[in-house]
Design brief:
Oligomer: single chain
Radius of gyration: 20 Å
Strand content: 15-25%
Number of domains: 2
Helix content: 25-40%
CATH architecture of the largest domain: 3-Layer(bba) Sandwich
Low-confidence stretches: none
CATH class of the largest domain: Alpha Beta
Shape: elongated
Order of helices and strands: EHEEEEEHHHEEEEEHHHHH
CATH superfamily of the largest domain: FAD/NAD(P)-binding domain
Number of strands: 11
């Protein structure tokens, strides 16, 4: 900051998926495939069958031919639309404008087609590749939380939950340290252990989820099963969010 250098016993990287802290600590890891997303603010999206008469009260995820469509309510009837492009959708990004692809995804999604007939889209922006890997969540004097610690599929919408859970676990470890003395090299090992334990089920289930969503018919079947069973849906969210079942 201002050209000055600062020294710290512990640096916490909570600076997002393109974490500078992770990169400077040498904790970057290669990812299997690139995934791009489109995002915009929109109005004119009608509430779904579970929405209240005054508007939407919860976030939604839908499977479309072009990828996963997220709908998050904002204020004054506006929503945030996100389209995490599939492999075929990513290829089309070179041939069509982001707005064209967003409208095509909405029109091609049965659960959104009628609800977005009169949608008004703001500027549709394309992100860089979302997945970013991390070799570890901690190293000597460095700890990572949230997206800095690695990419999670946004389908279950639990990124904030995982970030807060990681911060809670790190705070538990850090609060037990005595910063008036030299900190041992393995001081952050309790955080690493707790983080792995808390997200063990999610780390096991996530590859299965990715596999299903990458194959549209399988993804649609999975979403249909989750929508029919409230218990199954809550179980999936609990596992994906790293919360106790």
């Amino acid at each position: 900051a201002g050209g000055r250098a600062f020294e710290a016993t512990l640096v916490v990287g909570a600076d997002g998926r393109n974490s500078v802290v992770r990169h400077r600590a040498g904790l970057d890891a290669p990812v299997g495939r690139k995934r791009f997303a489109l995002v915009c603010r929109a109005t004119g999206v009608a509430p779904g069958s579970r929405g209240l008469s005054r508007g939407m009260r919860h976030g939604e995820m839908h499977v479309s031919p072009l990828g996963q469509v997220g709908v998050a309510p904002l204020s004054d009837g506006a929503v945030n639309l996100n389209l995490l492009l599939s492999e075929s959708g990513r290829a089309l990004l070179k041939l069509r404008t982001p707005e064209h692809l967003m409208r095509a995804a909405l029109a091609g999604t049965p659960s959104l087609r009628a609800r977005t007939r009169w949608v008004r889209l703001g500027t549709v922006l394309a992100t860089g590749s979302l997945p970013q890997g991390s070799r570890a969540v901690a190293a000597d004097g460095v700890a990572l939380v949230g997206d800095a610690a690695g990419f999670w599929d946004p389908f279950t919408g639990d990124g904030m939950c995982i970030a807060l859970r990681g911060a809670e676990l790190l705070a538990r470890t850090v609060s037990a340290l005595d910063f008036t003395k030299a900190i041992p090299e393995n001081a952050l090992e309790p955080y690493v252990r707790d983080w792995r334990r808390a997200l063990a089920l999610k780390r096991m289930i996530s590859p299965i989820l990715h596999h299903a969503l990458a194959r549209r018919r399988l993804g649609v079947a999975m979403v249909s099963a989750l929508s029919r069973s409230r218990w199954l849906g809550r179980l999936m969210v609990a596992i994906e969010g790293g919360r106790p079942i």
